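Hello K.,

You asked for the raw outputs rather than the summary table, so here they are, unedited. I folded two proteins back to back in the same session to keep the settings identical. This is the first:
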Amino acid sequence: PADIAVGATVSQALSALAAALPPGAEVLVPEEEFTSNLFPWAVSARLRTVPLERLADAVTPRTRVVAFSLVQSADGRPAPTADILTAARDHDALTVTDATQACGWLPVQATRFDILTCAAYKWLMAPRGATYTYLSPRARRHMRPIAANWYAGSDPGGSYYGPPLRLASDARAFDLSPAWFSQVGAAVTLELLGRIGVPAVHDHDTALAARFCAGLDLAPTGGAIATAPADAAALRRLAEAGVRTAVRAGRIRASFHLYTTEDDVDRAVAALTGHDPT
């Protein structure tokens, strides 16, 4: 599609806008944001951070870009997206969202944002090295193709050698030459997810997360990610039970997807509570 660019990483995708911002431009970002959507702005702009829940209220006429994740990496919290979009629109700020922790289990409408980018190795289950980015025509007017290459040419096969610069007139001008093996793997997983349907994946994943929370007497998150207190004993029991989790921001982060079963959830709960599920 004319508004989609292919790349390798989120930070690379966002740098084409970050590098083109005027000196002193303010970019507003949640203070707990994953750094792929924070460091590019810190290099090229005047970064201002606030807690996620205050992001919409913090947008001012000086704000050029509001950048945030749809779902937070550390704990799975969803962003107050509608409020952020309204505040950004009221102040004519560009909206940039990292959907890496959302696309694949959460229904997402990319055209609500000026830029939406997603690394496919998480919930899209692809190999590392595949990233897809929606670039609205409005966003592209503010961007520079700083990684211009033959694959971004108006005719890639005719862009191997020599001047002049002849980039595509749409979002493909921001393409990177693909990591071919990553894209081969991504083609399979994207076809699978499309066949199953994101709504069905959403129902499966969130039901498992709710089962996990209920087993630990935690408030349900409504999402596909849940966290629990982390201590050495709990982490040891999880490892012994063959349960793989991550520790983020000092808590155990558990994520639930197509390959997760109710038995997996019960095994994780038993390991964390120290109770034998049998």
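The second followed immediately with the same parameters:
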Amino acid sequence: MSSFLIPHSGLTLEIRCLDLEDVHIHEEIVPEMLERLAESIENDKVLKHPVIVDAASHVVLDGMHRVAAMKMIGCVRIACCLVDYMDKRIKIGRWYRTVKGEAVSRCGDLLAEASIPQVACSRTCQEHIDAGEAEAAIESPQTHILIPSSNRGLIEAYRTVKRLEEIFRSHGCSVDYSTEADAFARLRDGKIDAVLLTPLIDKETVVAEALKGNVFVHKATRHVIPARPLNIDVPLELLRDERVPLEVVNSRLSEILRGRVVTRFPANSLIDGRRYEEETFVFS
């Protein structure tokens, strides 16, 4: 199968197209985000960035909404950057929710009104979460609350997280997403009122659930890839015609990419208004 390869410190980035029906998302789609993205891609007439996909299982690690958007606008293929997901240099983390609003002071009562079980922490919330003893936890300067594990699995645990987000938002709070370290730094600095802690998900669970057609809520996993390609600008017309064999599509894609200049940027570079913590290979 023709493809374009970018060697990177022993971890190969392989750019090639896959049939959309053969890739598997692992997080749910947010309709508002999908509509905006589909319109943007249609207007650009190219797919700017490839989705990051596990080479072995074709599970999407980054780019769920691009997959859905490409389907929405009538494409049958999508450009992917294939990686070895089980490589130790690819990390999986989580997004903590940061909460700001007066209702945080009443969160125990809000959970009780919603019939969500809660218990006090006997250790730090982080320790309970990482031991698998809780589906979620809420930590503020005044409050340390655990949502005890129901033993229904991580998909259901994250549905509980989503429900907690909805409760806070419905009572006028803002809810955002941060890394673990950033969330607690913001809490210490008084920039937020609480941190909603979420459980760890391992790579094997991501793959297993995705291949069964199950999806986690939005912002469940945070994948850190050592490097990624950007601005490959694949013409949509190349991705729409199902009559063209996939091998031919990939030959054309490789030809397009070989004709481009690739610039390597170090980690934490600002590209098109976004800061990437990984190295990037930018096509032009």
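The longest helix spans residues 154-170.

Happy to rerun anything if the numbers look odd on your end.

Regards,
P.
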